[in-house]
Design a protein that fits this description.
- The chain has ten helices and twelve strands.
- By secondary structure, it is α/β, with parallel strands linked by helices.
- The protein is globular, with a radius of gyration of 20 Å.
């Protein structure tokens, strides 16, 4: 127990709250908490259940303004100081304008500042000055493409990608599979890697991938908590994560691969700067094949 979080004479110190609206199938409450400092509490509520698998249709259903308003009303009794919509697809499905409208609807209902996962992603990319990124998602091809279109609208190019094609049970994907996708996605120089979906576990794999791939690694839950906590004037908790720990960013000390004996990255001197790689035009996701014999997407982001 952290004895600094309460007073023996007066009980717990006053808490500061983040109200979190998550889709009905969200299963990673404990991961969100890992980015939160001791003096902040999360108040979570979920959107109503709908019998739809993970898809663009589901993204639209869980992000309707009426649905958001009901969820925010359920949180107001706890008096959160900021609201966070923790769903990537639900916040990019309407494009940049749709994401802004969601924030406005939540802020209007809750009378406090509001952020969404996709809006927080753009904020984090701007913080890191990242314009060319690699993308990892557990989604189908169509949902992955919609995310890339959202990023393109905001001026961010996706130059490498990998996706799983899942429509359910995303929270069960192990770190090993996330890391394998990341390695397939980062095949050319990028400014950052983004791992999408708040239902995909990422906390412990972020520092390992940053050490191995030598680029900042962002994830959906990470950027959501980072952005919400910024609005409280406090910092997210995330050792060896470039977004949160400035010492882990390019140009600072370089993280060596994890030492199995120590369980944490070693720090080495930064290497001499390499000449810039020639710019490559952004790649579009491949169009799905049509006609007889067409099948579906491969985990590498192509088609067979």
């Amino acid at each position: 127990m952290d004895v600094t979080s309460f007073s023996l004479a007066g009980g717990p110190h006053p808490q500061r709250g983040v109200g979190v609206v998550a889709p009905f199938d969200f299963a990673l409450d404990r991961e969100l908490w890992r980015w939160v400092p001791d003096d902040v509490s999360l108040h979570l509520t979920r959107t109503p259940y709908v019998p739809v698998e993970v898809s663009l249709d589901l993204a639209r259903l869980v992000s309707e303004h009426e649905t958001l308003a009901e969820a925010v009303r359920a949180l107001t009794a706890a008096e959160p100081e900021v609201l966070a919509y923790a769903c990537t697809s639900g916040s990019f499905v309407g494009g940049v304008a749709g994401e802004r409208a969601m924030c406005e609807a939540m802020a209007r209902e809750g009378e406090v500042a509001a952020v969404t996962t996709s809006g927080a992603l753009l904020e984090a990319l701007a913080e890191l000055d990242a314009r060319r990124i690699a993308l990892v998602t557990p989604y189908t091809w169509s949902v992955t493409q919609a995310l890339e279109e959202y990023l393109g609208e905001a001026g961010v190019s996706v130059v490498g990608r990998a996706y799983l094609g899942l429509t359910r049970h995303i929270w069960k994907v192990p770190y090993r599979d996330v890391a394998d996708m990341a390695r397939r996605a980062v095949l050319r120089p990028v400014d950052a890697l983004f791992i999408s979906c708040t239902n995909l576990p990422t906390y412990d794999v972020i520092p390992q991938l940053e050490a191995e791939l030598r680029v900042p690694v962002l994830s959906a839950n990470q950027v959501t908590m980072w952005s919400a906590l910024r609005r409280l004037g406090t910092r997210a908790v995330g050792p060896y994560q470039a977004l949160i720990d400035a010492g882990a960013r390019p140009g600072a000390a370089t993280l060596a691969p994890l030492d199995p004996a120590l369980g944490s990255p070693a720090v080495t001197e930064p290497p001499a700067p390499a000449p810039p790689a020639p710019a490559a035009p952004p790649e579009a996701l491949p169009e799905p094949p049509a006609g007889p014999g067409a099948t579906g997407p491969t985990p590498e982001g192509g088609w067979t």
